[in-house]
Prior knowledge:
The structure is a single chain. α11 crosses α13 and α11 packs parallel to α15. The two termini are about 40 Å apart. It contains 15 helices and eleven strands. By secondary structure, the protein is of the alpha+beta class. Strands 1-2-7-4-3 form a five-stranded mixed β-sheet. It comes from Oryctolagus cuniculus. This is unspecific monooxygenase. One of its GO terms (molecular function) is iron ion binding.
Amino acid sequence: MILFCGPGVGALLFTSPFTLEAEFREGELPPGPTSFPIIGNILQIDVKDISKSPTKFSKLYGPVFTVYLGMKPTVVLHGYEAVKEALVDLGEEFAGRGSVPILDKVNKGIVFSNAKRWKEMRRFSLMTLRNFGMGKRNIEDRVQEEARCLVEELRKTNASPCDPTFILGCAPCNVICSIIFHNRFDYKDEDFLKLMEKFNENARLLSSPWLQVCNNFPGLMDYFPGIHMTFLKNMKEHQKSLHVNSPQDFIDCFLIKMEQETHLEFTLESLVIAVSDLFGAGTETTSTTLRYSLLLLLKHPEVAAKVQEEIERVIGRHRSPCMQDRSHMPYTDAVIHEIQRYIDLLPNNVPHAVTRDIKFRNYFIPKGTNIITSLTSVLHDEKEFPNPKVFDPGHFLDESGNFKKSDYFMPFSAGKRICVGEALTRMELFLFLTSILQNFKLQSLVEPKDLDITAVVNGFVSVPPSFQLCFIPV
């Protein structure tokens, strides 16, 4: 996910006369393009579409190769077999979290921590989230309530053209708020609006080319002004704004854990960071997927119509969708899977690192080496998904129209570092999308054939282009 460089240098990919295959000897790092002093291979990376670079390199060097992002080597794994072998078969050895300098400065929580801290924080967070049948309300109740609130907010648009970005960001953020603070917020609440503004800005900054340069050259961060400073400021302001003394759900559990345990991992600082992790991982990625979902359904109205037919047949108009409905809605389930496969939200995953010296496919990878796993190469595998660049729910349907699982479906990664919020995200995508399509017809402002569905930013996440639509009540 850190394969970036400044604008314009992508044109240099594979055109430099100095790009020669590095000499490889048994027992050393995997082969790869010869790197330049200091800057490594950064001039050979395609900034406009980062998912293309691993694919092009793999054609020259195979499914396992080394690139230098700055002066440090990074091993890239391309293709289902290599990714599965590392993340699943050798899960413990590849369970380290790779370095992302901009996030290392502000985050030691669930997502970007390592070793004992990561295991303690992940175990606690998973246990607490699973136990959020707390009181009389479980997580599904919370998501269903937010889905109803989302529908009401969309009704307020009065079928007028609107950009759905803000509203679709509020819904998953409020679900996290209800889990963390035992309270949801009105979409017009001033504090809630500030929180949303910071998340949206940080998501844009994380995928910008300049921030990728800073990640490759972390020394630059402390000396040069730029958007990375805004990102750090936003994160620190957000952490300061959290009221850790409020007796709330997740926070209350964490504070009790602090009283009971002597683990150095459980401190007020790590609480703030853990909560930030849950907000960051559970808000922006889900809202981006929802936004991309609507754009793809506008592009393919025949798919939206078939989903609505299934909703009418299974759920009807007079009750809210629930998770039990999903097993009776194979087409809708296939559409949601295909959306996640097609948009390829995290093209190169969050970086991993090896936890010890390891021999992998006869190559030697030293402990601590950053590992990039190309999720694009798995989600867009031509053998598993014919015509992978085409949006086709049939990729997840058998000949009888039943839902068909695929081991290649890895939008949440795989193995020990698989997304901690996978179950919640799956629930939100199903309940939010079915609730929207149960109540509205999606109307594009332009002809579907003229809609551009190409990601405008393909850095940390794949961000869809801005668009407007009308939510027509049915």
